[in-house]
Amino acid sequence: MRRKTGTLLEREGTRTVAASLISILIGLVVGSILIVIVGLISPNLGPSSIGDGIRLVLFGIVSTGRNAAGVLTWGFNPQNIGNMLFRATPLILTGLSVAVAFKTGLFNIGAPGQYLMGTMATLAIALGIPANAMPKPLLWLLAFLGGILAGALWGCIPGIVKAFLNINEVLACIMTNWIAANIVTWFFDATKVFQNTVENTKTSYIYKTTYGKTLVDGVWTYVEGNGVSTAKLGLDKLFPGSQVNGGFLIAILFAVGVYILMTKTTLGYQLKACGANRHSARYAGINDKRNIILSMAIAGALSGAGAALYYLAGNTEFFWSTYQSLPAIGFNGIPVALLAANNPIAVVFTGIFMSMLNIVGQQLRNLTAYNEYITDVIISVIVYLSAFSLVIKMFLTRRSKKGKETEPTPVKAAVPAAEPTAETVTAEPEVEGEEGGDKA
Prior knowledge:
Helix content is 65%, strand content 4%. It is mainly alpha-helical.
C-alpha cells in the first residue's frame, strides 16, 4: 500500500491536484471552525444553527430551503446551480487571463482594469448602436468582439513597458487598473446617455443590454426588450429560474482554445520559453519582446471577454461610479488560476468552485442567522494557501522520497555456482623447454 501511495505522489500532476485539494479542505475546515465559534458566542445562534451552518457551507449548493417545520431540505436546486454556472463564466475567463500570463512568466494583476475596459466597450457598442440598425446577433457579436479588443489593448500597456523599459508588470498593472477605473467613470459620467433613467429606483446604473436604442416619435429612447442578450442555448430549460446562458459554454471553449494554444502550437511554446528565461529564448532566436506584449494582450483579451459575457447576459447592471473600487472578479481570477496550477482546463473547475462558494454565502445568509462573509473568510484562506501550493507540493515530494527510501529493497536469492564438467575443464598449457631439455 505504501508503494502505491509513493508511486502516485511521484507524479507531478498528482501532487498538484493534491496541493489544491488540501488548500480547499483546510479552507472549509477553517470556515466550519469559524461557524462553531460564532455560534457559541452569539446569543442569536445555537447548536442547531451551528449544524445548519456547517451543512450549508459544505453542501449549500444542493439546499432547497426550509420546509414548514423549519428544517433544511436538500435536493437538486436548478436555480442555484444555474446561477453558479453563470457567475463562474467571468471567473473562468479572468482565471485564464492570469494563467496565460503566469505561463509566460508574468503576473497579470491588471485583470480588473482590463475587465473594466472590456465592460465599457461592450456596453458602449451594445447600447450606442440603434437596435434596428443591424440584426441583433450581429450587434451582440460586435459588442462581444469590442470588449475583447478593448481588454487586449489595455493589456498591451503593461506588456510594452515590461518589454521595452523592463518595468515590473505588477507596478504597471496596478497603475493601469486605477487609470481604467477613472476612464470608465469619466466616460459614463460624461455621456450620461447610458445611465438608467427608466427605472426610477435605479441610480448610477447603466442600462441592461436588453434595453435597445430606438427612435420613438423622433426621439432616441431606450426600450426594454429591444436590445441584445446572450442566447440561452437550452440551458434555461435545464436550470429554470436562473441567470445561466450560453456564455458558460463559450467560456469552456475559450479554456479549450487556450489549452491547445499553450500546449499544441509553436506560439505557445515560444510564450512558455520566454516565461522560463527570456534571455535564453532570445538567444534561441525567439522575439522575447513581441511575445511578452502578445502574452499580456491575450491575457487582457480574456479578461475583456469575461466582462462582455457577464454584461451581455441582459440581466446584469453596471454601476458606473467605479473609480473608488475595482471589480472583485478581476482579482478573484488570481486564486482561480493558482488553485488550477495554471492549467486552462482545471481553471474551469476552480472557477465553478469559487462561484459555488459565492452561492453558498447567499444560502447561509438567507437560511440562517449567519452572514455571507464567512464564505469570504473561507475564500481568503483558500487564496492564502493556494499561494503556498508550491510549498505543499514540496512537502508531498519529500514524503514521497522518504517513503521510497524507507521501503526495504528486495533481496534476490543466491544462485549456486554450477559444478565444473569435463567439457568445461581445459588442460593447462605445457611450458616449452622443460621436457625437451631433459631429453637433450
